[in-house]
Design a protein that fits this description.
Layout lengths: L7 E7 L3 H12 L6 E7 L6 H9 L4 E4 L5 H14 L5 E6 L2 E3 L3 H10 L4 E10 L11 E4 L4 E4 L13 E3 L7 E5 H7 L11 H11 L3 E12 L10 H17 L5 H21 L3 H16 L19 H6 L4 E5 L5 H12 L4 E6 L4 H7 L5 E4 L10 E5 L16 E3 L5 E2 L2 H8 L1 H33 L3
Parallel strand pairs: 1-2, 1-4, 2-3, 6-11, 12-13, 12-15, 13-14, 15-16
Antiparallel strand pairs: 4-10, 5-11, 6-10, 7-8, 9-11, 16-17
Helix pairs in contact: 1-2, 7-9, 8-9, 8-14
């Protein structure tokens, strides 16, 4: 039975996050908007989550206990189906490690109620551990590069944000959806298991004419997953599911373009992953692509996701005894990520940014606290113990050799340091050309077959 007058079903999906889900529920119960029923789907937790929820909130929560973990996608879909049996106007999807502002739900309900063309709305998501920093505010789908471009990702929260941000996707950690829209798209595809399930559901709504928005007055705080990777979990599911999504919705003419991307990524990971002895990561990512091409979905088979050993951090080993570093930019915002990575590894190091292609103003806008900056004309290499050249990928290091850096670092934490590394990478283009000629025709053929199978499943209502 639903609460009299309730027009919102709040659905929280939980698996083995006992303390976080209890805090999430507590924050929901403090909401200024009270016309809701609260559903919690427990995905077969083994940490006592379900019993703790029953003990503390038995009369306030509709608890659905599942015997096994079917991922966030499967858990949300169970909650959605349960809610659709009642007469709710909206469904509110929440991650278990979210804390909601007391007015978050009220703002979303008022916003959707006054905008009939909008099918779903999301909140401003801030980091729980860094409440002055935005996690991201939705994302645009980049069909040319087969990826998501997140809005305002990791930017400082300010008062000059637009109140409404149009978006292609809303993360399911805080998404209010109109029931009629979710009925039209069939809910969430549980076969994603985790990652890109919300992207697919949002895009399906857009295809049916609905707009999607992030509404800034609605605020939640999200606990970011551990920065230290201890398994290949994300390597598998993000790789398999992102490519499934793009293959499902893109035009057939783009299949050869996606195939080129496949071959490029597979080779980069194999060439550098084996050189760095990261065999587990390479193996998992290849399994993800194999399962995609074979139509294998849902929870990963045994052996696909593995615990990672402790890899040597080459960047740390190189900089651990250094006190003064110069960083040469590559003309992009990559400098911020690598700068922060170095500071995280060695907080006491003095870093000076050497302006090679970026302007001083551009660099200043990238950082909350302005680092030391000088231009390349004033740069004297002898004043620094180590000079680092940033590049998008270390295979591009020949483009920067004229800068005479000691170390090359890319976005993926690959490094080139010394003649042995340089010799290995110098063969990259030659080996890649042979690899591409051998594999590209086969990958194109397999992707066409895969897309055809996906389209067949869509026609049957299973895709």
């Amino acid at each position: 039975m639903s609460q009299a007058g309730a027009n919102v079903a709040i659905i929280i999906c939980n698996w083995n996050k006992r303390e976080y889900v209890l805090k999430c529920i507590e924050s929901v119960l403090r909401s200024s908007y009270t016309h809701y029923d609260l559903y919690v789907v427990d995905n077969g937790s083994t940490d006592g989550s379900a019993d703790a929820i029953t003990a503390q909130f038995a009369s306030q929560v509709k608890l659905i206990r599942k015997s096994q973990n079917t991922g966030g996608a499967g858990g949300f879909q169970v909650g959605i189906q349960a809610a659709l049996a009642e007469n709710y106007e909206f469904l509110y999807l929440l991650d278990n490690d979210v804390v909601v502002d007391q007015d978050a739900l009220r703002h979303l309900v008022e916003f959707l109620s006054s905008n009939p063309e909008i099918g779903a709305a999301g909140s401003k998501i801030l980091y729980m551990d860094k409440p002055d920093t935005i996690q991201y505010l939705g994302a645009s789908i980049d069909w040319d590069h087969f990826c998501l471009t997140h809005h305002y990702k990791n930017q400082l929260d300010t008062n000059d944000l637009p109140s409404i941000i149009d978006t292609d996707m809303i993360p399911a950690c805080s998404m209010l959806v109109k029931t009629k829209a979710i009925v039209e798209v069939g809910g969430m595809d549980s076969e994603y298991f985790i990652y890109f399930d919300d992207v697919d559901m949002c895009y399906a709504m857009k295809l049916r004419g609905y707009k999607l928005s992030i509404y800034i007055p609605s605020i939640v705080w999200h606990k970011r997953s551990a920065l230290v990777r201890n398994s290949t979990f994300e390597d598998y599911y993000i790789r398999r599911n992102s490519n499934y999504f793009f293959l499902k919705y893109m035009s057939p003419e783009k299949v050869p373009v996606l195939a080129e991307r496949f071959v490029d990524i597979m080779f980069k990971e194999f060439y550098l992953g084996t050189y760095n002895s990261k065999y587990d990561i390479v193996r998992t990512r290849l399994f993800a692509l194999e399962d995609l091409l074979n139509g294998t979905r849902g929870k990963a088979m045994e052996g696909r996701v593995v615990t990672l050993p402790t890899y040597e951090n080459r960047l740390f080993e190189i900089i651990k005894s250094v006190t003064r570093i110069a960083i040469l930019d590559d003309g992009t915002s990559h400098i911020k990520k690598i700068y922060n990575q170095i500071v995280l590894l060695k907080p006491d190091v003095e870093i000076t940014i050497i302006l090679s292609k970026l302007s001083r103003e551009t660099v200043a806008n990238l950082f909350q606290e302005l680092p030391l900056i000088t231009d390349q004309k004033s740069y004297d290499k002898t004043n620094f113990e180590l000079t680092i050249q940033i590049c998008e990928h270390v295979s591009l290091f020949p483009n920067y050799v004229q800068n005479k850096a000691d170390l090359y670092v890319d976005l993926y934490s690959n490094v080139i340091y010394g003649k042995e590394d340089e010799r290995y990478i110098s063969n990259y283009d030659t080996v890649f050309k042979a690899y591409k000629e051998l594999h590209l025709p086969l990958i194109i053929q397999r992707l066409y077959e895969c897309k055809k199978n996906i389209q067949s499943l869509k026609m049957l209502g299973n895709g």
